[in-house]
Amino acid sequence: CETCSKEEAKYRCPRCMKYSCSLLCVKKHKLTQSCNGVRDKTAFVSINEFTDLNLLSDYRFLEDVGRTADAAARRCTMHSPATKRLLYCLRNKARGCNIELKTLPVGFTKRRENSTTFNSMENKFYWHLKLIFPHCHAEYTLKGVPDDKTLADILKPYIDPVESDPIVCQRLKIYTASPQSDVQILMKIENRNRNSVRYNKLDASRSLLDNLKGKVIIEYPTLFVVLKTLKNDMVILGQDGSEPTQSTGSESSSLSSMEEGEIRDSS
């Protein structure tokens, strides 16, 4: 025992690694050494001494940090009157534009991701927007998209053969190689049964705000960019949406699994 030096040691302090023989010596050691007895999870361990137990300890420490940070963020957001006022204002402004904007409870991924704001000076929405290109299994997130920007201008950096980024262009080459008239922009219709998923067809020449009017949006818009020819060949689709046609090809199953339903033009 490193406290009394009389008895055989039975305990070892997780903090300073001092040996003690009894509860009395443990308490005395904590008092004299100003030791709290709590293991230092961030103490340096050389690579030669690093074991599986140290690895497990580090992993658990990171998990604890993640849980603590997440809990703090939830409490801050959940109980912040300012946040509630901003959400109410955002929904109210959307309602004034004939858009039914719904927000999810704190903790949902889309709630954390959403960066949509409303500029009162400009009387304009700046949307958080997600673009999904199912034929290439690609998706991109845009922030601060003004509501008066046309969908064609929004898509230019992605599928325009001249203005798109070379790396993005290469990834979406099936879109950039197709004529612009073949591109369709669809948005899922919310509040429908899971077995009757439908999509609205949007007008690329009109603004984002005009396309969102009269629709239900959960947190932020998610747009699916598809090609007419591939869509007709690959997606289970009937003329009236009730009688599905046969789909073929390897890409058909991948597109269907990504969208989990039928794609039907609103017209």
Could you characterize the architecture of this molecule?
With 267 residues, this protein is of the alpha+beta class. The protein has a domain at 99-227: Ubiquitin-like (UB roll) (Roll). Helix content is 37%, strand content 18%. Strands 4, 5, 6, 7, 8 and 10 form a six-stranded mixed beta sheet that branches. It has a two-stranded antiparallel sheet with strand order 1-2. Strands 3-9 form a two-stranded parallel sheet. Strand 1 (11-12) and strand 2 form a beta hairpin. The radius of gyration is 29 Å and the shape is elongated.
Summarize the helices and strands and which ones pair or pack.
Layout: E1 11-12, E2 19-20, H1 23-33, H2 52-78, H3 81-96, E3 100-102, H4 109-113, E4 117-119, E5 124-133, E6 138-146, H5 151-159, H6 166-171, H7 173-176, E7 183-188, E8 199-202, H8 208-212, E9 216-218, E10 222-227, H9 228-234, H10 250-259
Parallel strand pairs: 3-9, 5-10
Antiparallel strand pairs: 1-2, 4-5, 5-6, 7-8, 7-10
Biased composition (Low complexity): 241-258
InterPro entries: BCD1, BCD1_alpha/beta, Znf_HIT
Region (Disordered): 238-267
